[in-house]
Amino acid sequence: MAGGDVxxxxxxxxxxxxxxxxxxxxxxxxxxxxxxxxIMGQNGAGKSTIFAMITKALQPDEGTITINERMSxxxxxxxxxxxxxxxxxxxxxxxxxxxxxxxxEPRIKKILEVVNLETSLDKKVGQHSGGQQARLxxxxxxxxxxxxxxxxxxxxxxxxDGIRHLRDFLADYKKTVIVIxxxxxxLNSFTDGVLYLDVFTKKVEQYAGNYYNVVKEIxxxxxxxxxxxxxxxxxxxxxxxxxxxxxxxxxxxxxxxSKMREKIDELEEEKVDVRQEDKxxxxxxxxxxxxxxxxxxxFSSVSAIKGHKKVKLxxxxxxxxxSKLLLRGPNGVGKTTLxxxxxxxxxxxxMINPDVRIGYYRQDFSTLDPEATVYDAIxxxxxxxxxxxxxxxAAGFLLNADILSMKVxxxxxxxxxxxxxxxxxxxxxxxxxxxxxxxxxxFRHLPIIAKALDRYxxxxxxxxxxxxxxxxxxxxxTIDLEELLxxxxx
Length: 490
Description:
single chain; Rossmann fold; 3 domains; six-stranded mixed beta sheet; 16 helices; 21% strand
């Protein structure tokens, strides 16, 4: 990649967890000083595993990882661990340093300005919204001013202002940045190279240049390999036909047939398996609960957060089947809190038909039992059908038999998202409540998910900061909490 001297190098690195197949097999790549690199690959391909090895949280089984010893490293994590949610903001940032920092309070306030977050240093981390927690995670990495900055899905839960602040910061950041993200537009604003994890070969392919151009280059390569397979399969079919003819003749022709069989075996080995990382999930449908009609959800008011206080906002709205409500507002205004109270049927001013089955996609996947197997996690909400239907549904979301036998905690965040959608398909809900359903999901899957949501016949309440995703769904109603707060303030 263009840039200065090499600051990070993987040399024939192999790694595999004890409970699954190898993640990396003799993977090699290098990163130069000051470069802005994207890591691409299917959910579960091992992107976060590479970060864990860079930070030495994991050690390779074979091969070497060389990092310039003068380079400091910081990682922006995807989620805040549960054992850190009770820390105050001050205590949280103190953990970013191995030694006591005496001017830490002004440094925290300065870095919070960078990520556009207003909060109190004595406020608990867990009292912040999902979007605010995403900004805290980002600030935690940035406050260390590292030579190598690792960002794992940094745009998840960020509103458009938060994404703009991050994009501008990264464009101006003079040091090395490596980013895992499925946000193509965000990546293309600063990326000058791509590390591509091939989930079939378990190797890392290195590309230089514009993110979109790299995607096109990879797609063109896949098409060339597909066409090569077509030619080989045609050749193999012709040779098999000739071999069968000669083998029936006997004598010298049987020797010819035997040699042809050897050649066929060679041609079979030349075929390239379909690259799993380029597979998308299958088209799917979320069937609506059948025994419901009329008013499914009625709103007389909603609650929002302003100045750390709960504000009641009057509104008159009814959701019936095929209603699709978009709930909008900046990070910290209380969207997730409102959705959670609806799921519990405790939201003040919101009445949900007691017969309605609620399907809930929670942005942090905390509704999934980390100790349960993936199979059991999906089966627990299954409305009807048997094991064959469950496995078929799971396969459509790229959750094969090996993954079904794993524990939820062993999955990547993207795979947890696919598990959550599989659960919704098998649940047949009457009301869908979706909190940032695009987080962690491979961008190739998003049009398929949007199409399924658009065709859903039940009522739906959606929170998403991704306009290009929302625009693919016929939204019937919108509640903008920021606008309602402004009206109430007048």
